[in-house]
Amino acid sequence: MKITARQLKTLMPLYLMTKLLWLIFSGLLVQTRSSSPKKPNIVLIVADDMGYQDVGFRGSDIQTPNLDKLAKSGVILENHYVMSVCAPTRASLMTGRHATRTGFWRSNLNPAEKFGLSLDETLLPEMLKRNGYSTYGVGKWHCGAHTWEHTPAKRGFDTFFGLYLGSQDYFTHRNERDDWLDLREDYLDGNGELVDIIRSDLDGQYNTRLFSKKSVHMIKHHDKTKPMFLYLAYTAPHIPDAAPSNDIKKFATDSMTPARKKYAAMVSVMDEGIGEVVSALRDKGMTDNTILVFTSDNGARFSSEGSNFPLRGGKGSVLEGGVRGVAFVNSPLLQKTGYTNRNLHHVTDWYATFQELAGDKPERHEKVQLPVDGVNIWRSLSNDEPCRNEVLLNLRDVSKQAACSDTSCAESVDEETGSFRKCKNLSGITLKEGTPIKAQDFFAIRHKNWKLITGTAFELRGWSSENRRKGYVSFTDNQGSTFQRSLATGTLLFDLESDVREEQNVADKFPDVVETLMHRKKHYLKKVKFLEQRQIDDDIVMEDGIFRPWVEDFNNGTA
Q1: What's the CA gap between 503 and 28, in Å, rounded?
Q2: Could you please report the per-residue DSSP string of 135-198?
Q3: Residues 80, 86, 222, 346: which is the catalytic one?
């Protein structure tokens, strides 16, 4: 069809306008795409058995300048919940799934136990690695190491430097119970075979500084064309309490007990190392696109020099001092910073949040992703938007575990030390204060401002004193007897908004609230993983005194 000069003159403005709009739209589209945030670097730091108050920004007598600066310029998480002991928190962190789902709900992990995170779980480093991340693990694993397949380099870490077990001497790097050497450097070779290098050459060097130094090394040598995930899990300030003498001397003029000074030095050396990690990120030019998260795995041990003030209880209890972890997030990617976030968060939420930020699409991968319990809390962190109104603290139920039938199985554990009391039948066991129990069988949940603890043989404890100056404050039961800690049976309801110290049990005043929360138990009980008898190989012998996985025959996809 021919177009006349008059028609062309009429159509030309419309053509030019259409062309101009197309160019503008294209430019905006390109600009939008190019300005989309890259996958962020993730630095996840975990402290071990650290007290809720044992940071400067909470009024501690322990100076933590690096943690303070990061927390105050980031977002302090006031209601960040973890599990009450080490391994369950780490299992939840690695999977995004509650300990009730992974089988870690029952207790801590014994060094000689044939148990770990099931191989059908997609762990955090594995998920990030499939999305292009370089993944570095440093420090404490404690998620299972009875087979090589359960060890960190087989679970998604490109490299791992640290210990498989739950604790070690800070200088000899041997676990206290068995004197097994457990400091190693792991990676997969070009054929996918695991290389496990025992670092006996580092004997005598303080492990907190070794972990900081290794983390700095990994950052310096990281290929910036790929996003980085660094998991730095210190053993500080977990027992055995130890620190270099020169670091302890820094607290010589402080009015602390000698034991508290040692604990303070442990925290101080960790804080120093975190400062070095941040400096390495800055020198590498990575801070603009990095999210740094800090959390403790649980509160300070009740018998330690740590302080959970003003909270009640400590490690091993579902009272606030055991499960409300000191935590914060720092990143220039946050929209709002320099404030205290009071929204409810749970340790499982980090997996869901990092999964979203990494752009992971579980349905596109061959390995089936098991249901995640955590929620994406990025908008809560960045904009202070509410994200959840409920947190399951723990649920133990005798119907979800096999009965103890002989002396080779262990159903009862001292959460304070991790040591097991062997038994034929738990119903015949008597624990503290003459309280007979079938098993620890209880339910603990926080819903909005309410917290419910109900059941049999849960730990009831007193309070931390400020900066541990007066030890722990005892509590009085309804018969007038005083205790620092005891097992309890019954129902407790606390209004945490007005009673963060959990001093006033208001269960009798609000029976409707108790009833409503008890209904939630049925919901969660359906998801609890059934556990067979726990198998502890107390008689295993490690060649050359070096801890190595000892089980060869195991069922793939199970514990």
Answers
A1: 58
A2: EEEEEE--S--SSGGGSGGGTT-SEEEEESSS---TTT-B-TTT--B--EEEEE-TTS-EEEEE
A3: 86
pLDDT of residue 472: 80
Which one of 80, 98, 142, 150 is the catalytic residue? 142
pLDDT above 50 for 495: yes
Peptide bond into 371 cis (omega under 30): no
Q: What letter does residue 409 receive in the DSSP assignment?
A: B
Beta bridge partner(s), residue 451: 446, 494
What are the CA-CA distances from residue 515 to residues 490, 506, 519 (Å)? 14, 13, 6
Give the strands of the sheet with 339-346, arranged side by side: 194-198, 184-188, 159-163, 134-140, 228-233, 41-47, 290-296, 327-330, 75-81, 339-346
Cα separation, 440 vs 444, whole angstroms: 12
Out of 17-31, 264-278, 361-375, 431-445, least confident range? 17-31
The answer to whether 329 touches 381, Cβ cutoff 8 Å, is yes
- Do you find a cis peptide bond into 240, omega within 30 degrees of 0? yes
Reduced to 3 states, what is the DSSP secondary structure of residue 305? Answer: coil
Across 68-91, b (16+ Cβ under 10 Å) vs e yields bbbbbebbbbbbbbbbbbbbbbbb
Q: CA 202 to CA 214: how far, in whole Å?
A: 12
Active site residue 365: no
CA separation (Å) from 336 to 76, 222, 333, 345? 11, 29, 9, 17
Residues in the chain: 559
Task: Specify whether 345 is catalytic.
Answer: no
Q: Please report where in the chains the tokens 């069922």 appear, as a residue.
A: 555
In angstroms, the CA 1 to CA 15 distance is 17
Q: Which residues contact 15 (CB under 8 A, 6 or more apart)?
A: none
Percent of the chain with pLDDT over 70: 85
